[in-house]
């Protein structure tokens, strides 16, 4: 539990602790009847003496904010006598959160020049997007509900939209927050639960923007031990014994950039570890609809019964990139704190984007269109791999792509990814260096290329140029 303490402030430490609790109780970040940390726990967390905490609790009780029961603990005031069982979410309330008073400054994404063949932009070619269906749906929504352009809407997201999305995802609509894209959702999670010095476990390689977000928060990023078969759970447990993480950031379904998928058993094991160490899992799911052999196993969020998992489902890249829409799902007190942070970030996600998504999902066309997209992307993937195999050096390697839009290349020994990226750019082809996908320095050299954004002919031309550059 995070109570801000400023030792240089003229206000006493006791008064700061009292004010901190009052602010959190007023804003419902601490709920009526919730058990508070013990004197010893809070003193350790805040780096103050136990007597300071005792005096702060005495003042809060005298003013009617809390009640202390000998042998049972300290609780927020409100019908405490009727509380016969521990709150299901008590362990979550012990997680330190960092809800600031300022907005996060956004940065703009650099666009690829039109004259380049883009093998770097991990998004669908416009011809693969359901443009006509989206336009028709938006037009109908605007006619039926023109007021959507004249109001802010609900911070959590419109109830009607959440109901439709909940049906599509098989989730409780009350657990869903609609956000302006997956990047905003990751930001909200990081800003709420990750502070300076907190430990975040991440796969390596992983999504570069997530690395940047956690670095901004001052997190200590530690690589999850993996091999060619996936996570090495014995090593992970030993690592958790040494350094307990605050959060795992995971892309289990068609991982970016490798395209790997975690098995059901791996997901269950990771969830068990997170529950054992009482830390969070942030499950990022941009690609589960884009598979080439079989759909991925059930999400870790659906397996979760204790509120350990926060789930992000992105819709922008696969349905409407311009709409910038995704969902953020969580349970219990974790959900409450994420929604509180969302209210600090904005007054609500674009209603036009929300109703665009709702109209499309409600039409029943999503499954049909995704089936067509998977078939066309599967053809592109086959052509891309054949072109790499035909024109690439024999020691250029890549793994099995089970889903998603990317191919993860391992360069021959002695080749430098940054040099190849630069030279390819000079020849009119853009790819991404593997270094962008690691939180730390790497020994092997990699490149990520996509096969989804350019035309088929441009893709083949771009791959030939890339292979020639690698030679």
From TrEMBL:
The family database entries (SUPFAM superfamilies) matched by this protein are listed as: PLP-dependent transferases (SSF53383), Winged helix' DNA-binding domain (SSF46785)
Name of the protein this chain belongs to: 2-aminoadipate transaminase
Task: State whether keyword Transferase applies.
Answer: yes
Key words of the record = Aminotransferase, DNA-binding, Pyridoxal phosphate, Transcription, Transcription regulation, Transferase
Quote any Pfam family the record assigns: Aminotran_1_2
Q: What class of enzyme is it?
A: transferase
Domain of life where this protein originates: Bacteria
Q: What species is this protein from?
A: Aneurinibacillus soli
Which cofactors are required for activity?
pyridoxal 5'-phosphate
The catalytic activity of this protein is classed by the Enzyme Commission as 2.6.1.39
CDD domains referenced in this protein's UniProt entry, alphabetically: AAT_like, WHTH_GntR
The molecular function terms of the Gene Ontology recorded here are: 2-aminoadipate transaminase activity; DNA binding; DNA-binding transcription factor activity; pyridoxal phosphate binding
């Amino acid at each position: 539990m995070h109570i801000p303490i400023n030792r240089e402030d003229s206000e006493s430490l006791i008064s700061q602790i009292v004010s901190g609790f009052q602010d959190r109780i007023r804003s419902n970040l601490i709920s009526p009847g919730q058990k508070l940390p013990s004197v010893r726990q809070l003193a350790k967390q805040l780096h103050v003496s136990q007597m300071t905490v005792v005096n702060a609790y005495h003042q809060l009780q005298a003013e009617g904010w809390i009640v202390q029961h000998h042998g049972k603990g300290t609780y927020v005031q409100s019908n405490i006598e009727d509380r016969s069982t521990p709150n299901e979410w008590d362990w979550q309330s012990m997680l330190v959160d960092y809800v600031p008073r300022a907005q996060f400054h956004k940065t703009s994404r650099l666009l690829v020049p039109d004259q380049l063949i883009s093998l770097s932009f991990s998004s669908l070619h416009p011809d693969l997007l359901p443009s006509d269906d989206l336009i028709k749906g938006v037009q109908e929504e605007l006619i039926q509900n023109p007021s959507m352009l004249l109001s802010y809407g609900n911070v959590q997201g419109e109830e009607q939209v959440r109901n439709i999305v909940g049906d599509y995802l098989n989730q409780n609509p009350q657990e869903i927050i609609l956000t302006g894209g997956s990047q905003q959702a990751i930001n909200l999670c990081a800003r709420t639960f990750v502070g300076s010095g907190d430990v975040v476990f991440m796969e390596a390689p992983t999504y570069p923007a997530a690395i940047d977000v956690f670095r901004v928060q001052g997190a200590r990023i530690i690589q999850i031990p993996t091999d060619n078969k996936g996570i090495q759970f014995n090593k992970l447990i030993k690592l958790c014994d040494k350094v307990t993480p605050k959060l795992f950031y995971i892309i289990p379904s068609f991982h970016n950039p490798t395209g790997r998928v975690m098995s059901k058993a791996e997901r269950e094991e990771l969830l068990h570890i997170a529950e054992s160490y009482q830390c969070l899992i942030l499950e990022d799911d941009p690609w589960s609809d884009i598979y080439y052999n079989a759909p991925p196993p059930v999400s870790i969020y659906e397996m979760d019964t204790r509120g350990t998992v926060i789930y992000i489902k992105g819709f922008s890249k696969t349905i409407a990139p311009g709409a910038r829409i995704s969902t953020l799902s969580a349970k219990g007190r974790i959900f409450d704190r994420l929604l509180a942070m969302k209210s600090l970030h904005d007054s609500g996600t674009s209603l036009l984007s929300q109703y665009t998504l709702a109209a499309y999902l409600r039409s029943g066309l999503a499954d049909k269109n995704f089936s067509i997209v998977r078939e066309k992307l599967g053809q592109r993937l086959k052509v891309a791999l054949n072109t790499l195999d035909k024109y690439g050096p024999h020691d250029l390697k890549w793994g099995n792509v089970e889903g998603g839009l990317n191919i993860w290349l391992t360069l021959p020994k002695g080749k430098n990814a940054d040099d190849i990226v630069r030279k390819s750019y000079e020849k009119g082809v853009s790819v991404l260096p593997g270094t962008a996908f690691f939180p730390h320095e790497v020994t092997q050299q990699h490149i990520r290329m996509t096969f989804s954004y350019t035309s088929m002919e441009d893709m083949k031309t771009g791959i030939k140029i890339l292979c020639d550059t690698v030679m």
